[in-house]
Design brief:
Length: 186
Amino acid sequence: MKRIPLLLLLCCFLGWGCAAQKPEGDVVPMGGAPAPGNGKAEVGAPYLDFTAPKLEGGSLRLSSLVGRHVVLIQFWGIRCAPCLAEFGFLANLQNRYGKEGLQVLGVNTDGVDAPRLSEAMAARQLSAPYPMLLDSDFSIAKRYTPWLIPVSVLISRSGLVEAIHTGYRPELDSVIEAEVVRLLGR
């Protein structure tokens, strides 16, 4: 089981799977409704529900947020530099728009338990003003991420996947913020 995180690190380091290295760009249009039973998130299709353990204990079910909130999910890894660079932007979004109905969620794909992730985040002085979820068996990421990490998925209050962004670069900040503002009805 320890081979998977090492493989993810190797792929990201070499640019084989790290979405930020994808030469075609950082916004992946996936349009259209999913084929019945394909089990993959797609832009314009309903979100795929999941329940995941929270870093601080307990668990969170995505459907408990959809309807009341616009949800922005970031799939990330502790060794992924673009993922870590996106943290500040997502924290600012949560702080700025949380009272208006935005809920950011971080879904960690390192395949580690909560104590190890907490230790790794503390060592990098990372904290987030939004829930951090664990996807230790990659079951959530497999349904939502067209590439590895980072991937951000924006879900409207009506439960539709509105955007899927692979990779991160600061130029995406204004694009994602505009999408959030539009979905919040500002």
